[in-house]
Request: fold
Amino acid sequence: MVLSDEERKAKDREYHNTPEYKARAQERKKSPHYKEVAKKYRNRPENKERERASQRTPEYREKANARYARPENIAKAKEYNAKPETKLRKKRQHASPEYVAQKKEYRTKPETKKKIEMNRLRPENIEKRVKQQRSPEHRAKKAVSNAKLRLKVLQTYSKRLSNNNIPCCRCCGENSHIDFLALDHIAGKNKMNYEPELVKLGYSSKLLGSSLYVWLRDNGFPEGFQVLCTNCNFAKGMKKNKNKCPHEKQRLEETFDRMTAQSSFEL
Reply:
């Protein structure tokens, strides 16, 4: 009796679902030879592409989500992720240039941005995020990270314009404490809204505090900023000083007087 293709496939499927066949298959998968052959088979380009295409289907994702949601699998995943070797391997993987480039490319896709925004605006995620941001641990970590970023910004601009790795005021040289220093907009905070190079980078005068520091870091510390102490920065912003610190005016007068005295002496 000759079986049709459908009948033969149904018979094979029935045979593969028997407990005896499944037990033999599990034993066979544990052998080193089987693992080596399976690895070579999976590493073929055509097989990798076929596996990726299969994993993108809704049916596969639905089955995978159901499988991951099982209590025993959740417990196994937590136990595996808690191992030190697993954490170290993930840390090295996430720090690799290939992973960083792949993640950046994935996040720039329009569908990914839409998915991230929809996920961020879910009520349960908003509630979770607000609760996390109000926790003392989160506030302490945020304060430490903001302080480190502020120090990096001040060091970068101080070294670039004052030739000093220690953050100091470019005008008066104040460097006794970092809290006495501030980041100054050289041309003026509002005037810099119309500078083409900064506009292309997304600059806005509404960027203040840690938001401004993050923008500077992400854009490679662009030109147009300097480090001043609080006194020099405040005095420079007064209308009567016309965007110049009184120290600068005083230095110009001293230079003028010195040049005048020198010229008079020569005469």
About this structure: Strands lie at 181-185, 225-229. The two ends are 128 Å apart (CA to CA). The CA atoms of residues 106 and 112 lie 7 Å apart. Residues 137-255 form one domain.
